[in-house]
């Protein structure tokens, strides 16, 4: 078994454990993004994919953050600003602390660096082109500011026109004008803003956290089961609509140069230096 396949199997173990918690605690989830595409096109992982994405309606997401770790195996930890002090993301991950999946943007961070799956909240937003564009830019600006807190992320910026912006945000804002701003509080304020918008929002939701792709909230939360690596998992019933909006002609295999992965610096699936619990 090659190394990528071993990584996929480890991620599937994490997904299976998370889904067990969801099923036992009335927490709704759907597989999304590349995981949904893999289920539809390959009945499992996209052959070159190295992650798993699931989404939860906001109410289920908050419930999972609050209680999930009580029911997960002891080696699995929820990484979220509420559960880990230096968590750099506004969304959540479930990581296996007995493994390593080191990304270049996180190399200097004192956080759990284990193999993970991503969990994103499904938040309602206001409908209408102006409101959608406004929220898209608000999320985008937050993401840029938050990511540029980490010098590892800034060093990894490839677009030359963005390098100066990244270093300016890091050194002038975070290390200068905002040096007394608590990053955890910065993330928390934005998360609370998004939650409040969900509570007052319309039947509209972003299908992806970093793209202006929207659909009806009521439609994406309608679920059916999909075969993925020999197991069945919940996904959006309207998969064709979702995948066409996200990927266009999604059944066409992309050229090798367009196959995106995390490209980790280091992966270890069994860490012998971690004490048994």
UniProtKB/TrEMBL annotation:
PANTHER family: LIPOPOLYSACCHARIDE CHOLINEPHOSPHOTRANSFERASE LICD. It comes from Laedolimicola ammoniilytica. This is LicD family protein. Residues 22-248 form the LicD/FKTN/FKRP nucleotidyltransferase domain.
């Amino acid at each position: 078994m090659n190394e990528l396949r071993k990584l996929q199997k480890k991620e599937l173990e994490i997904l299976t454990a998370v889904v067990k918690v969801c099923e036992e605690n009335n927490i709704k989830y759907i597989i999304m993004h590349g995981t949904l595409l893999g289920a539809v096109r390959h009945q499992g992982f996209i052959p070159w994919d190295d992650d798993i994405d699931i989404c939860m309606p906001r109410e289920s997401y908050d419930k999972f953050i609050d209680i999930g770790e009580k029911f997960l195996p002891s080696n699995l930890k929820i990484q979220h600003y509420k559960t880990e002090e230096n968590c750099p993301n506004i969304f959540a991950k479930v990581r296996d602390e007995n493994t390593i999946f080191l990304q270049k943007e996180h190399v200097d961070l004192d956080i759990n660096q284990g193999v993970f799956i991503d969990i994103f909240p499904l938040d309602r937003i206001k409908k209408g082109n102006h409101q959608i564009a406004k929220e898209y830019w608000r999320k985008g600006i937050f993401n840029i500011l938050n990511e540029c807190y980490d010098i590892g992320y800034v060093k990894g910026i490839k677009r030359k026109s963005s390098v100066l912006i990244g270093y300016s945000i890091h050194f002038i804002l975070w290390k200068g004008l905002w040096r007394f701003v608590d990053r955890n509080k910065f993330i928390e304020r934005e998360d609370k803003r998004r939650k409040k918008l969900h509570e007052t929002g319309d039947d509209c939701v972003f299908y992806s956290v970093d793209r202006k792709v929207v659909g009806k909230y009521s439609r994406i939360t309608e679920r059916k089961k999909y075969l993925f690596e020999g197991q069945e998992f919940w996904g959006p019933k309207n998969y064709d609509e979702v995948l066409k909006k996200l990927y266009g002609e999604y059944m066409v295999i992309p050229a090798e140069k367009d196959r995106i992965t995390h490209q980790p610096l280091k992966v270890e699936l069994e860490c012998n230096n971690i004490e048994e619990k």
